[in-house]
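Journal club prep — side note

Before the paper discussion, L.F. wants everyone to see what a predicted structure for a comparable chain looks like in token form. Sequence:
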Amino acid sequence: MTRTSTHRRVAIGSIAFGLTIALTGCEWTGLNSVPMPGTEGSGDGAYSVKIEMPNVTTLSENSPVRVNDVTVGTVDSIEVQNWHAVVTVSLNEDVVLPANATAKIGQTSLLGSQHLELAPPVGIAPEGTLSDGDVIPEARAGAYPTTEQTLSSLSVVLNGGGLAQINDITRELNAGLVGREDSIRDLLPQLDQLVGSLDRQRGDIVTAMEGLDRLSTNVNQQTATLTAALDGIPPALEVLVGQRQNLTDALIALGNLSATATRVINESGDDLKANLHALVPVLNTLANTGNSLTEVLSLLLSYPFALKNLDQVFRGTTRT
């Protein structure tokens, strides 16, 4: 009797399970394809949103949907469309998000279970309100690093990264500092003074950098002129190269002239001094004549007539 009752209960359970699958109208892909009763996003007023995901990793149906680490919905289905995944989620009626919200797959626990995180956009002003039937595009969807990716990156750092070099650097620094504690102790205040001085000169440094920026701008604006000048240098150098022999001869002649002048001055220096000394009375006498010398010179040029009356001599005296 007991065995018969047990068989009857198993049969009834199987039939109920089959009817549940049939009523859902979904393809059987495992237990996760069956809606779980009592989950978030399944009550009255719940609304659906589609999310285009580049990669769903290990996200599965019935995975929780979170906002600010609070479960507010569930993943209804995961499909493939146009080479990317489309995740349909059901959210509670009281979930309010902007229309440009973002979606990311996160890891719920270290055991590998995942959830879908919805959030307002970062660095962008929220727009509109997310409502039933809206689609979050692939550009605003992604995934946080998984445990496997984190461990893989850590493995690269530990095995092929710079930890061994850090050990070498630490050892060399220790070897360099041992026995020089007093010098290092004196160096620290000097470094503090240097940094303080640089901080006080910050305005001047900024001004100098701005000046360099203006100089660079001016140089950039004069690029054509500088290019033309640089292009003109080679021909000028060619002219100088062609005149090298003449320039050399001129410099040699100038050197010979200097040597000759030096020799003449050295040999006749006393006579030159005597002649210059003898010219002093003559020059003084000329200076003392004043205007008389200039008047005599003007008469000398037009002798025997005065220079001021010369025009009347040639034209005759005009009488009124």
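L.F.'s comment for the group: The chain has a mean pLDDT of 81. Keep this in mind when we get to the figures.
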